[in-house]
């Protein structure tokens, strides 16, 4: 049995904690089954955005005609786009691996860890023990209960990265984050795309008016079927994938087919691979690890951060949680994880970004004011001839504190940042307005939305 001060499981957000433990001279082990660097680097944020950036350029070229520029995409080297993505991912992964394998300050266990008792893990034939354990073992693609799915060759966010040509047609199950980001990418690459979403709208977690804008924009480029639950899949003799779905209210089942199928139906916790139940660690009914506001599990000294605690499945949140868990677990502090200004962005076309409460959630808890400005209300938005983009803020009526903000349109993920910063310090209009805004920049839409805030009657 090898004894450590600290064991970290997972090389995504877990690496932050590993670094801090090593910096403090603690005897530290990392267990990771790979690919090194975790989901974000290998099959999530990085490869998807390496692909979406060229897709955004395709859309700029297609949309240039409304500015009087006549241009068209004459050809796309899909292979080159994929190779560039692999190069970036492989280089980064190799760099992390070199550090893990060569560092004399930590011990790297390259394999699947399993709890065999509280505070005790096994990797292969090695047994490890520590009083401080940080679980950052992430999630994997969820396989929805669809008849026949195990008999067809479907893609997920990992396997699609191995495509060498853009499929002629693609059906995507799920109109959430992964679904709408890859729908944008593949359509821009020339694929005929159909998205099936069982909720009544795509991006069901966003403000309804934001989902509407995205639906209009993507709907002009592809088929979007909402309230459509996929019930069965099969493979036709010619290799095409058949997908059967029922739309709510309809009694008949319809079947469509395509060259490829992408399953983008959510994520499943990796806590089962880690056998956390044998370690006495409690999970919720969906298998995510229960943590308190300090990110500690039911066992003292064992923390769970990132996707595996099921709170928010975003890289930036995982890193913020890692900082809190490290402060508590390594430095003996009592810091609570604060999600109030935890944002997200969806890199589809148009981009979506959001932070804090939705309008309906805010109205349940507070008396509110709403401010909205369209991109076209600003000089640059007018120059861009942007018709649909807007920025919405939700304020607490009595205090003017920002409770939430929601954006759809170009650079949404960047525009929202100043609101995130203001929210992090419980700020309002004054926090945003105290900085002079460059004219004529798109950031004026943020200031305009806040200045337009009006009382919403209960
Ligand atoms: C297609 C896609 C695009 C995304 N885009 C974005 C984005 O743009 N922005 C954003 O913020 N988020 C994005 N996300 C979400 C983001 O990737 C995740 O929230 C983040 O990677 C989770 O990090 P983590 O450290 O919790 O887990 P992971 O990065 O998944 O790391 C877990 C590690 O633990 C290892 N592991 C698991 N079980 C064991 C075990 N038993 N023993 C040893 N090792 C184990 C795994 O192999 C893995 O290396 C995206 C996700 C997907 C799927
Ligand atoms: N830009 C980003 O930050 C980003 C990008 C991609 C993924 N992510 C993270 O990864 C997570 C997983 O993404 P995701 O898109 O796989 O999950 P998701 O939960 O966002 O969306 C899955 C969708 O699939 C639908 N669905 C499930 N079963 C279905 C069926 N049988 N028929 C039709 N529709 C069905 C669900 O209703 C849901 O809307 C996200 O929640 C997010 O946290 C983040």
From TrEMBL:
* Family of the protein in this entry: Belongs to the class-I pyridine nucleotide-disulfide oxidoreductase family.
Is NAD one of the keywords? yes
According to UniProt, the name of this protein is Dihydrolipoyl dehydrogenase
Which parts of the sequence belong to the FAD/NAD(P)-binding domain?
4-321
Q: Which organism is it from?
A: Candidatus Dehalogenimonas loeffleri
What's in the keyword line of the UniProt record?
Answer: Disulfide bond, FAD, Flavoprotein, NAD, Oxidoreductase, Redox-active center
Could you tell me which InterPro entries the record lists for this protein?
Answer: Class-I_Pyr_Nuc-Dis_Oxidored (IPR050151), FAD/NAD-bd_sf (IPR036188), FAD/NAD-binding_dom (IPR023753), FAD/NAD-linked_Rdtase_dimer_sf (IPR016156), Pyr_nuc-diS_OxRdtase (IPR001100), Pyr_nucl-diS_OxRdtase_dimer (IPR004099), Pyr_OxRdtase_I_AS (IPR012999)
Q: Which cofactor does it need?
A: FAD
Domain spans labelled Pyridine nucleotide-disulphide oxidoreductase dimerisation: 343-449
């Amino acid at each position: 049995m090898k004894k450590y001060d600290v064991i970290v499981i997972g090389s995504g957000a877990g690496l932050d904690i590993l670094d801090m433990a090593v910096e403090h001279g603690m005897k530290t082990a990392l267990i990771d089954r790979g690919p090194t660097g975790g989901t974000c680097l290998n099959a999530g944020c990085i490869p998807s955005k390496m692909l979406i950036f060229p897709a955004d350029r395709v859309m700029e070229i297609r949309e240039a005609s409304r500015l009087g520029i006549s241009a068209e995409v004459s050809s796309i080297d899909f292979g080159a786009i994929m190779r560039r993505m692999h190069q970036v991912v492989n280089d980064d992964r190799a760099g992390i691996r070199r550090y893990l394998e060569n560092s004399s300050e930590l011990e790297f266990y390259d394999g699947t860890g399993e709890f065999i008792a509280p505070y005790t893990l096994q990797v292969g034939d090695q047994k490890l023990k520590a009083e401080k354990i940080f679980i950052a073992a992430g999630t994997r693609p969820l396989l929805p209960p669809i008849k026949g799915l195990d008999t067809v060759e479907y893609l997920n966010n990992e396997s699609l990265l191995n495509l060498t040509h853009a499929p002629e047609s693609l059906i995507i199950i799920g109109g959430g984050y992964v679904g709408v980001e890859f729908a944008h990418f593949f359509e821009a690459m020339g694929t005929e795309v159909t998205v099936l979403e069982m909720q009544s709208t795509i991006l069901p977690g966003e403000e309804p008016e934001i989902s509407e804008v995205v639906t209009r924009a993507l709907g002009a480029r592809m088929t979007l079927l909402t309230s459509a639950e996929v019930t069965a899949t099969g493979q036709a003799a010619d290799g095409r994938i058949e997908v059967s779905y029922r739309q709510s209210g309809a009694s008949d089942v319809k079947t469509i087919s395509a060259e490829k199928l992408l399953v983008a139906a959510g994520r499943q916790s990796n806590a089962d691979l880690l056998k956390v139940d044998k370690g006495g660690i409690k999970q919720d009914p969906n298998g995510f690890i229960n943590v308190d506001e300090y990110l500690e599990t039911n066992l003292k000294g064992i923390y769970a951060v990132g996707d595996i605690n099921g709170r928010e499945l975003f890289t930036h949140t995982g890193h913020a949680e890692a900082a809190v868990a490290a402060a508590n677990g390594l430095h003996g502090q009592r810091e609570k994880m604060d999600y109030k200004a935890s944002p997200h962005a969806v890199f589809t076309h148009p981009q979506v970004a959001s932070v804090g409460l939705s309008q309906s959630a805010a109205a349940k808890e507070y008396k509110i004011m709403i401010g909205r400005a369209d991109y076209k209300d600003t000089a640059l938005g007018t120059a861009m001839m942007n018709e649909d983009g807007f920025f919405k803020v939700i304020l607490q009526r009595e205090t003017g504190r920002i409770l939430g903000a929601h954006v759809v349109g170009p650079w949404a993920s960047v525009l929202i940042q100043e609101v995130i910063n203001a929210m992090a310090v419980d700020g309002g209009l004054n926090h945003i307005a105290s900085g002079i805004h460059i004219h004529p920049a798109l950031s004026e839409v943020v200031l305009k939305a806040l200045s337009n805030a009006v009382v919403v009657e209960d």
